[in-house]
Write a structure and sequence with these properties.
Distance between the termini: 48 Å
Shape: globular
CATH architecture: Alpha-Beta Complex
Oligomer: single chain
CATH topology: DHBP synthase
Order of helices and strands: EHEEHEHHEHEHEEHEEEH
CATH superfamily: DHBP synthase
Largest sheet: 6 strands, mixed
Helix content: 25-40%
CATH class: Alpha Beta
Strand order of the largest sheet: 7-4-6-5-10-11
Number of strands: 11
Radius of gyration: 16 Å
Structural class: alpha/beta
Strand content: 15-25%
């Protein structure tokens, strides 16, 4: 295990500012943080730092052609990472953010290549879990939101289930206890005239179509 790997307990209801500030410092220095999202633990890095993003791919053993979504504090950050936001995407954001909806938009060219997987698109979500929300808000920039697991393996709802081969490369693990698990976010591609559901997850197609 890394000499400087740190496990920090964090309350899901009332995250300790000291712990959050420690995590923000790790992200700003190019480090990696495992943190709780609604159902599973995620792997966070500064999404605008190419080296940090490359580390995420390396330790997850992830195919470089597979893009990674990012988490943001709110829609005000979109202009930094997306070319434009169609009206249909805005309606979905208003209805389901923060929450389990990842919206794919056209990516700005300055984003690290690994995030887009060469597609020219970027998946974006505003997280609902209190720790994730506070962390992303305090960081004030996009954070990678991929699951904290080795590629091809199931996501982890407890830090005890994190793969040792992954943990040894982390700089910080925020332990919020057992998460609820379940399906991942619903993914919608809003880069076309009519949004396309790429993956149906926690939010059903029926709910999406009702809004659209």
């Amino acid at each position: 295990m890394k000499q400087n790997s740190i496990f920090e307990k964090v309350s899901a209801r009332d995250p300790d500012p000291r712990v959050i500030n420690t995590a923000v410092g790790v992200l700003k220095s190019g480090g990696l943080v495992a943190f709780p999202t609604t159902g599973l633990y995620g792997l966070g890095a500064d999404a605008l730092n190419p080296r940090a993003v490359e580390r995420v791919f390396r330790i997850k053993r992830r195919d470089p052609d597979k893009p990674i979504l990012v988490l943001i504090k709110d829609a005000s950050v979109l202009k930094r990472i997306a070319m434009h936001v169609p009206a249909s995407a805005s309606r979905l954001m208003a209805a389901f953010w923060p929450g389990s909806l990842t919206i794919i938009l056209e990516a700005r060219s300055m984003l690290p290549d690994g995030l887009t997987g060469g597609t020219g698109k970027i998946g974006i979500r505003v997280p609902k879990h209190p720790v994730a929300r506070v962390l992303v808000s305090a960081f004030n920039g996009p954070v990678t939101g991929t699951s904290a697991n080795l590629s091809g393996r199931e996501g982890c709802s407890s830090v005890a289930d994190l793969a040792p081969d992954l943990v040894q490369h982390l700089d910080l693990v925020l332990d919020a206890g057992q998460l609820k698990g379940g399906v991942g976010s619903t993914v919608v591609d809003a880069t076309t005239d009519t949004p396309v559901v790429v993956r149906e997850g926690a939010i059903s197609k029926e709910r999406l179509f009702a809004v659209l």
